[in-house]
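Session log. Operator J.P. requested a structure for one protein chain; no other inputs attached. Running the standard single-chain path with token output.
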Amino acid sequence: IFHFRFWMYGEWFDVVIDDLLPFHSDGRLVFCRNKKDKNECWAPLLEKAYAKVCGSYEAMEGGFTTDALIDMTGGIEEAFELNGVTTPDFKDQVKRVLWQAYLRKSMLGCSITADPNVTEARLSNGLVKGHAYSITRVADVTSNNASITLVRCLNPWGNETEWNGACSQLWSTISAEEQHELSVRAQDGEFWMSYDDFFKNFHQLHICHRGPASLGTTEGDAETCSWSNLFRDDKLTWKEEAFHGEWRPGVSAGGSGQTGKEKYWTNPQYLVKVNYTDDGDEQNLCTMIIALMQKETRLRRIQGKEGEDYVQFRVFKRQYIEVTCLLRLKITYSIHLG
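Structure written below.
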């Protein structure tokens, strides 16, 4: 038997499976497999364990990249829609976030909105709609005496289905040294594109920040966690506070404030004090990520129902601090990965 651990709603759960895997009659694995090494089985075993979490193999046919990354790492999701009404400021903001996430070893992905009537339609530029790409690197290079940002993406198919856009023309303007340092193998699914082309052609940017839950450490036991000490430099980069709450009619369901404003204050409230700034931030600002997660959404999806209800959070600035209630919370710290 094999044991796998998945993160669900703030806790790690052990999932046990056997080694019976679905095969075709000709001996090929039905789903995930290594085309070069037929004896490599960790991926289909992981896939089977995750299918057990999701309810079936069929339930994993589609979905969001960050959902799987969160389940497997305990990280925190951040997502950006790139194909809406955008401004130069928003484009620059996304680039800063992309760079910051890459430098912090966050896991990055991107995708193009799919046609609901076509599965993974291939575009003339080589990209595939409704397909999950990984972002494996971000780099600045010099082109025609100007600095430009490049993004390296990976198609998990690992074949010749790659971006065939303007990067080939851009490549000739980059020095031979930088070309050698950035070089990728042909037809392996990995390719470079300029940030401008990335922003123009992809519709979603998915980020999974590997916070304290993904490292399995707290401030107290970080020194004794041998795996984490491989990367430790005694610098904490994330502090996480996890709350389990609910909207209960008549108690804590105060609505959106559009109607019945007199009850809005009954919504769950959490006081946040930011006491640190990001290293190197010229404006002395601190990165804070707020994420809402709804429980038991998989079962509803499997049953063909809408998975999530509409929820939101709002941030207000307090003029003074007065704690009126005690909240149950779980605080963990992450170590710096560098």
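Operator note: The beta strands are 2-8, 11-17, 76-81, 107-111, 133-143, 146-154, 190-194, 204-209, 236-242, 330-335.
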